[in-house]
Design a protein that fits this description.
Length: about 110
């Protein structure tokens, strides 16, 4: 069984991004694997490694929530109330991930 691929390739490593991987969007519109982002952010951090890890761990938590909500929506069947609630919580996780991604960019040299 093949893995479903997104339409994007990672802006850092160039490899395809698959739906079962954690990924995020940078402010320059590049889409990146979370693992690539984490590696580069830690290498180019302008803050302590502990501080960067706090932000990266928080981002990873939000990205994991997005994946979980998407999985649960597909299992919700015909219950529109549950689907609507899960969609809203997923959108909140996406907003939180965007905030944390911007913070990673600010605290490191990801885009340079």
């Amino acid at each position: 069984m093949s893995r479903p691929q997104t339409k994007w390739s990672c802006g850092l490593c160039g490899n395809p991004i698959y739906w079962d991987e954690l990924f995020t969007f940078l402010s320059n519109k590049a889409v990146v694997h979370f693992t690539c982002l984490k590696e580069k952010a830690l290498k180019t951090a302008r803050v302590s490694q502990d501080t960067m890890n706090i932000v990266l761990d928080s981002l990873q938590d939000e990205l994991n929530k997005i994946v979980v909500y998407k999985q649960r929506m597909s299992k919700a069947g015909d219950n529109e109330e549950v689907k609507k609630a899960l969609e809203q919580t997923e959108k909140d996780a996406e907003k939180n991930a965007a905030i944390l991604t911007r913070l990673v960019e600010k605290l490191s040299s990801i885009t340079s």
